[in-house]
Write a structure and sequence with these properties.
Layout (H helix, E strand, L loop, with lengths): L11 H8 L5 E5 L5 H14 L7 E5 L2 H14 L5 H4 L1 E4 H11 L1 H4 L7 H4 L6 E2 L2 H14 L12 H14 L3 H8 L7 H17 L2 E2 L1 H13 L3 H6 L4 E4 L7 H10 L6 E5 L14 H4 L1 H4 L4 E5 L1 E2 L4 H10 L11 E2 L8 E7 H17 L7 E5 L6 H9 L4 E4 L8 H14 L4 H8 L7 H11 L10 H7 L2 H19 L3 H19 L3 H15 L5 H10 L19 E5 H4 L4 E6 L16 H15 L2 E12 L22 H4 L3 E5 L1 H5 L15 H4 L1
Helix pairs in contact: 1-2, 2-3, 5-12, 8-9, 8-11, 9-10, 12-14, 17-29, 18-19, 20-21, 20-24, 20-25, 21-22, 22-23, 23-24, 24-25, 25-26
The structure holds a DNA duplex (15 and 10 nucleotides).
DNA sequence: GGTAACTGGGTTTTT
DNA sequence: CCCAGTTACC
């Protein structure tokens, strides 16, 4: 399907983008307008024009997008090895590669106790959970916990911190504007942020933001920077509406003046404001780079016109070019608005519709259910399971947040970076009788106070409570011997073995958890180093649990459940958007600010434009916690502000209210008594 | 003083 | 279902 030459089958606008020369190029591409195809074809065109694939860098926001583009570019390039030699990946993954390669420049300053223990290149990557844990740890150390007035929690603090870092806005202002309820504590919070940065540096820890900061710092360095930027002649950035301040700086430093720069984006699909992205970076680019050519893609190859008519109606005007999507594919049914009683009825209706379409020949995998928040599909998952409909869920699946997986990753990190406090903290607490306080105390004993000495194993064991001593000694010994090993598979195996008794003691469901880890260990064997494997896993977590089980069988058919965020860039024949009710979608968290609400609307636009042939929007009219009133049947208050009169005019409305259910002849319900069991007490 | 066991309240989105 | 807060036990 993709073994076309790059110039075949492109329309005029796409061809203009693909064949554009070396000057800066901005492609504003509406949903479904062949954005990926255009980007991929441009890469192929560059290679065919003689650009060395190694000198092309393709930056995306998800690993999936990067992999897909590289594979497709490889398929249409005349050079067979193009795909292998292209640089492509997420901002964070490329940053990790470059930052670890320059760890000497970025590592801890050659002073202090840290150095001897942190051999070169042993940087640990903290995922969001680890970073929040570290923030929490510092919060305790600073004595900010348990007071009379509640202090913001680790994850909230990390949110505020990250927003300041990613937007370049002073934390004080971020807190005032975005986290007003934290303002009374602002001085303590700023202290905490300073401590957080210091602690990470001292222990060679990098959070996600540090990867970007590190890359930017390398590029800004007068020695390293220009050499690094000169590695590439062309930099192509996908989803540019989702870049934050640091990423903009990185792109500017990579391609000063915009020569060799291509960006693709759609301001109406900007949905990452919560992590510091700002679509004004896309809109402002034309002014920053006056030489830039802007190409707009409005011809939609994905959806039928009736879906686009609806999409155009809900498309938020975001300040960018007024794109009106038009389709070559006429007809098709109008989008359906399904008004139903509650979430249970919604789940039933969705499954009914999916199965009906399936019977008429539509495979399950060409149908998807999209939702605002991962837990919105809880009832649906129950319904699908009960009716034996196979499904896979993307997004929100926190495989890496499962405690046992975190235990494994933390232990692996300790092999290379014994300074990693957060990792020790986890591992120590796996031992009976060691809770947060003892773990902190043991950490003080464990880490030597003189630079070059070993970790103080025997002292630590002696300091542990009696109940933990034997197990702790075993753990520390096993860790030390794993550290002696070099082979990735052996190391991973040893880590699993040292954890096994701890996990068996800790988790009642250890069988399943150890099974997960077996698969992790198996997958690790293919990586060059275990540290790399774990970092890659952190940066690019498996999208679903099934991903770890190996490649799915092609003949397997399953419905896709996905958050809208995770569905970005994907498409299905039939799409069901559930829980479209104020408070759910749009989320109640966003209802208070107009910027938040606008982002929700863009998210809804993303959801609607995933559909090729059929789109169904479900509105449960009674919320789960809605108080039952006397006239409850008629007090259907909840509704969606997305579906105004103009939008409704492009839809077919289906009523599925309990009136219809109530009119069904009542089936007599058999009465069943629970046994009294009197004879048991006789 | 610290851990384990229990209870009640709250839950966005992701690299 | 996970976390914080509470209480009972070591």
């Amino acid at each position: 399907m993709f073994d076309l030459r790059w110039d075949e089958d492109l329309d005029e606008a796409q061809l203009a983008a693909v064949t554009h020369g070396d000057g800066p190029l901005i492609v504003v591409a509406g949903a479904g307008t062949g954005k990926t195809r255009t980007l991929v074809s441009r890469v192929a065109a560059l290679v065919d024009r003689g650009v060395d694939p190694e000198r092309i860098l393709l930056l995306t926001f998800t690993r999936r997008a990067a992999d897909e583009m590289i594979a497709r570019a490889g398929a249409i390039c005349t050079r067979r090895d193009a795909a292998r030699r292209l640089w492509g990946g997420t901002f964070h993954a490329i940053a990790y590669r470059l930052v670890t390669a320059h760890a000497e420049s970025l590592g801890p300053a050659p002073t202090g106790a840290g150095q001897a223990l942190a051999p070169q290149g042993s940087l640990s990557v903290l995922d969001q959970g680890d970073a929040a844990d570290l923030m929490d740890l510092l919060r305790h150390e600073h004595g900010l916990t348990g007071g009379t007035q509640r202090f913001p929690r680790g994850d909230t603090l990390l949110d505020a911190y990250s927003r300041a870092v990613n937007t370049g806005q002073p934390a004080r202002e971020v807190i005032a504007a975005q986290f007003p309820w934290c303002e009374p504590h602002v001085e303590a919070i700023l202290d905490l942020f300073r401590a957080y940065v210091g602690r990470k540096r001292a222990q060679s820890l990098l959070d996600f933001d540090d990867l970007l900061l590190g890359w930017r710092a390398l590029l800004a360095d007068s020695v390293v920077g220009p050499a690094m930027a000169q590695r590439w002649d062309h930099v192509l950035v996908d989803e540019y509406q989702d870049v934050n301040r640091i990423q903009v700086d990185i792109v500017n430093l990579l391609r000063p003046g915009g020569e060799g720069l291509t960006v693709v984006g759609d301001d109406a699909q900007a949905v990452y404001g919560f992590r510091g992205a700002d679509s004004r970076h896309l809109l402002g680019l034309a002014e920053t780079l006056p030489d830039a050519r802007t190409v707009c893609l409005e011809r939609n190859f994905r959806s039928r016109q009736r879906i686009l008519s609806f999409a155009n109606e809900i498309r938020p005007s975001a300040g960018g070019p007024e794109l009106r999507l038009r389709s070559d594919r006429d007809g098709g049914p109008r989008p359906r608005l399904v008004r139903c009683h509650d979430a249970t009825a919604e789940a039933r209706l969705v499954v009914d519709t999916i199965l009906e379409a399936h019977e008429q020949g539509r495979p399950l995998r060409s149908q998807a259910v999209l939702m605002r928040a991962a837990h919105h599909s809880d009832l649906l998952e129950i319904e699908l399971t009960a009716r034996r409909v196979p499904f896979v869920k993307y997004g929100g699946l926190k495989f890496l947040e499962a405690a046992h997986v975190k235990d494994f990753i933390a232990t692996v990190r300790l092999l290379d970076n014994p300074l990693d406090e957060i990792a020790w903290y986890r591992l120590l607490r796996l031992h009976d009788g060691v809770g947060p306080a003892r773990a902190r105390a043991l950490l003080d004993v464990l880490r030597p106070h003189e630079p070059d000495t070993e970790l103080r194993h025997s002292e630590t064991v002696a300091a542990a409570p009696a109940a933990a001593r034997t197990a702790l000694a075993t753990t520390l010994d096993a860790l030390a011997s794993a550290r002696q090993q070099q082979a990735v598979a052996t190391r991973a195996e040893l880590v699993l073995e040292l954890l096994r008794p701890r996990l068996v003691a800790r988790y009642p469901d250890h069988a399943a958890r150890l099974g997960d880890l077996d698969r992790l260990v198996g997958a690790a064997a293919q990586s060059p180093t275990l540290a790399d494997y774990v970092a890659t896993l952190t940066l690019d977590p498996p999208a679903s649990t099934s991903d770890l089980a190996g490649p799915p069988h092609l003949d397997e058919d399953f419905v896709v459940l996905s958050t809208v965020h995770s569905a970005k860039g994907l498409e299905w024949d039939s799409v069901h958007v559930i829980n479209v009710v104020d408070g759910a979608f749009p989320s109640d968290m966003a209802l208070t600010s107009s910027a938040g609400l606008l982002e929700e609307r863009r998210l809804f636009y993303v959801a609607a434009t995933r559909a090729r042939d059929e789109l169904s929007v479900y509105t449960p009219l009674r919320l789960p916690h809605h108080r039952r009133g006397r006239d409850d049947k008629h007090s259907y208050a909840p509704q969606s502000r997305f579906l105004d009169r103009a939008a409704l005019a492009t839809m077919d409305v289906h009523e599925n209210l309990p009136g219809a259910i109530a009119n069904r002849p009542a089936t007599p319900v058999p009465r069943v008594e629970l046994p009294a069991l009197d004879d048991l007490w006789a």
